[in-house]
Write a structure and sequence with these properties.
The protein is α+β, with helices and mostly antiparallel strands and 199 residues long. Helices cover 58% and strands 18% of the residues.
Length: 199
């Protein structure tokens, strides 16, 4: 019986000595253990995944930013309807901003919204019906771009966009159209080929 107690005491002493021995291992051996390496690998995978999610979300947010700013609907009315080819016009106006000054320009647009609108309306009061005869409205767009840049005190507008353009023709246009219609009727009455039985 005493031998059994002695063997049990020795076994307990060995069991107590093993944890103490593992605790005395150098730190680099403990850091390179399987458990430590698997924890470090899992943490780096999580960090990589979080970084990828963050970048994907930030890219999606920048894609949803509209580059154009809408200014609403504008109207033009010619002072001399009888002499004008275009008596009136109605359209929606938008401006695209230069990317390098986009944020600063948006802040100025917010602060000077009504001044920009007023200056565009004053510009349209000085316009002529001929400005709307160009199908691309190049000259009118150029003038609006310069005016908006001047109102904002910076070069911010890259492009002026006109949508939903509705034109009302004036008296000069109707005279021209009447002449064109008469000419079309004259040429329609004379057939360029011989009818059957002629000649």
């Amino acid at each position: 019986m005493a031998d059994k107690d002695k063997v049990t005491d020795e076994k307990d002493a060995v069991d107590e000595a093993q944890p103490k021995a593992s605790a005395k291992k150098p730190i680099w051996k403990r850091l390179l253990s399987r458990r430590s390496l698997s924890i470090a690998a899992a943490a780096s995978v999580c960090c990589f995944a979080l970084d990828a999610i963050y970048h994907m979300r930030s890219q999606n947010q920048t894609q949803f930013v509209r580059p154009e700013i809408s200014h609403g609907e504008f109207e033009f009315a010619s002072p001399d309807v009888a002499a004008a080819t275009i008596a009136a016009a109605k359209f929606n106006l938008h401006v695209a901003l230069l990317t390098e000054v986009d944020q600063q320009a948006r802040l100025r647009f917010g602060a000077r919204k009504f001044r920009v609108q007023q200056d565009i309306e004053e510009l349209l009061r000085l316009a002529r019906g001929g400005d709307f005869e160009d199908p691309h409205l190049e000259e009118l767009k150029r003038q609006i771009q310069e005016q908006v840049n001047a109102t904002l005190d910076m070069r911010a507008v890259s492009k002026v966009i006109v949508t939903d353009l509705k034109l009302v023709k004036g008296g000069a246009a109707t005279e021209t159209e009447k002449a064109e219609e008469a000419e079309a009727t004259d040429t329609a009455g004379t057939s360029p080929w011989k009818e059957k039985g002629e000649g």
